[in-house]
Amino acid sequence: MSFPASDSSSSNSPAHALAAIGWDDAWAAEFAPYEAQGLLPGRVVRVDRGQCDVVTAQGTVRADTAFVTPHDPLRVICTGDWAAVEPAGNPRYVKAYLPRRTAFVRSTSSQRSEGQILAANVDHAVIAVSLAVELDLGRIERFLALAWESGAQPLVVLTKADLVPDPVVLAHLVQDVETTAPGVQVLTVCSLTGEGTDVLAAVVSGGTSVLLGVSGAGKSTLANALLGAEVMEVQAARETDGKGRHTTTTRNLLALPGGGVLIDTPGLRGVGLWDAEAGVGQVFSEIEDHAADCRFHDCAHVAEPGCAVLAAVESGALAQRRLESYRKLLRENQRIVAKTDARLRSELRRDWRLKSAEGRANHAAKRGGRL
Ligand SMILES: Nc1nc2c(ncn2[C@@H]2O[C@H](COP(=O)(O)OP(=O)(O)OP(=O)(O)O)[C@@H](O)[C@H]2O)c(=O)[nH]1
Ligand SMILES: [Zn+2]
Predict the structure, then answer these.
(1) Relative to the CA of 193, which ligand 1 atom is closest?
(2) Which ipTM did the prediction report?
């Protein structure tokens, strides 16, 4: 099916006005039925207290979210969604939103087992990692799994490169992260001098990006470097009273001067995985590659004969740390999913058997016995 080309030379054209915040022909095509109903397209900037801010061709409008707040928390409208808004009314309502291309979800920090939708339609997940502290590869792996699971393409940005003046050391650090993140671009930036930010700006110029990383990773500073203005609050001093720190609480969607859109999601510090098994597989793609050569199709890479993963660890091709990380993430992910999914219980029992087999194998190895 084809749709009439939009007149991009007219500043009144919604296509023109919304292109800067990610509108494209495919969105326009999907929106056509809503347009026929006289609804306006717009992108959700923030959602709060039953209402949301939506950027439309006529500017930012406040709209009621009653129609797009179903019981399933993952289906609640969120920042980044493309909404179909009533052209007028008091209140005016968001009637629907377009199917998401990608969705960022995390498990809630509470014991409740429901996921939380953080952002929709994100193309690039920029994982900020500070070079001011020792690299935590396991933590990077968690962020990568979360990113892959969302459908966005991850990118690791090592921030505060000025704190690692030795280029050889810096190259080694980059290499460590590259090994941890197959299929992922790794950049270094110094937001103070602006070094490297041009490369990042070019990568994020196409599509919508989100900044992930623990507190202090340099996300706000990076956002400012990309935006070329001090729009985001940067904390100059760290509170050390242990009572937690004041952080930015807005979740904004901003058009970048170099092209692209930035969604700022502060507070993504305690990253939990939410049903991210596919994401875990992608983070550890080299392990899954080895696993293809295991003798048994359902090999758990613990003590099975003909296990290609264990052979890779033995030969040094695969780091033991990676395999442990992989198992840990898979287990953590399973625990979260199992909270809501009783069907997984039988598989958890299988996992428990594997763990006990693992324990026995370690025990035998310690005593010098063969498996
Ligand atoms: N030396 C150096 N310091 C930096 C650089 N970028 C950021 N910083 C400092 O690192 C600290 C944390 O930076 P933020 O941008 O606030 O970190 P954040 O990830 O946004 O932190 P939260 O808002 O708590 O999530 C600030 O004191 C910055 O000044 C850099 O390139 N070099
Ligand atoms: Zn195996």
Answers:
(1) 31
(2) 0.95
